[in-house]
Every structure is written in structure tokens, then in C-alpha cells.
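Q: Trace C-alpha cell order:
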Amino acid sequence: MPRMLRMPGKDVLPPGPKRDLVAELFVHYRLAARPPLPKIAALTGTQSNPHRVSRETIRRLLTGTTTSQWEVVDAILIALCQLQDRDPDGRRWPEPDDSRWDENDPTTCREHLRRLWNDDIDGLEPDEAPATPPAAPAPVPPARQASSGWGSTPQSATDNPWAVESDSTPQTRGYPDEPPF
């Protein structure tokens, strides 16, 4: 009989973003009645958008020894939810009699796991994670010189990349200067 996986202890997997991710995966693993890893691996290949995951990768994710691509983590979540007969896009705690129920938290299983996965990748604690991505600073247009008409403001060679410095050296090329692009 295969050995069942256990949630790693705090001495093996200390508190932090990785432990939070593994703990959330373990919630679904337990609710699915701790299925054998080959069964989970087989289910990852039968999904509508299959992303076949090996049982070793599943074991490593559930023990916190690796962090994988989102497609892999999502495929495992879908397989575990399928074993529970649960929708991964349903509310995380669907029952009001559940002690974890929060009426103001409509987060789905997939959304919550993805947030934990991102926190693990970024190395952020949940309270450090930005709520929204920071806005990019507005571009500052370059300062323009005032001119009174076409060509009335002379530019130096340092301001104009196509300008030709006048010198007595004959040009050996057909064009005085190549454009900078």
C-alpha cells in the first residue's frame, strides 16, 4: 500500500509564503480523501485543457520542495476538485455552517491558490502583497526649444544626430551620418 503524504512540519517547511501555498494544496488533498498520487497524475491528463503532471511533481509540490509553473499547480487543483466533485471556480468556503465561512469573501479556490502561488514566487508574506499593481509613472515629454519658423533655431551636432560637423576631412562614405535606428 502506498504511503500517504502528510503536511510537512514547521521544522521542515517554516511559516511563510511557501508553507501557505502547500497548506492550501493540502486542504484540497485532504478533502479529496488523500488520493494516491498516480490517480491525481492520471486525472491531470484527462482535463479539457490537459497539462499532464507527473506524480513526482505532485509529491514535490505537496511537500513544499518545489514551486512549479501556474499551469501545473492549476492542473493539480482541478484534479483534486474533480475528486471532491467541486468546482475550482466556486467559492472557496461554500457552506455558511463552515467555521471558515466569510460572507464578504467571494474568493474562489482558484483565485486564492493563484494569489498564494504568486506570493510564493515573489517571496511575499500575505500582508506584504500589493493589493493592486503599482501604476507606471506618466512619461515626461522632452523639452522643446521655441522656434519662430522652419529651421530658424540652429541645433548643434549633439542635439541633432543627422547633423554634420563641418571639418576639412573629406567624407569616405556616401552619406555623412547614418540614422540612429
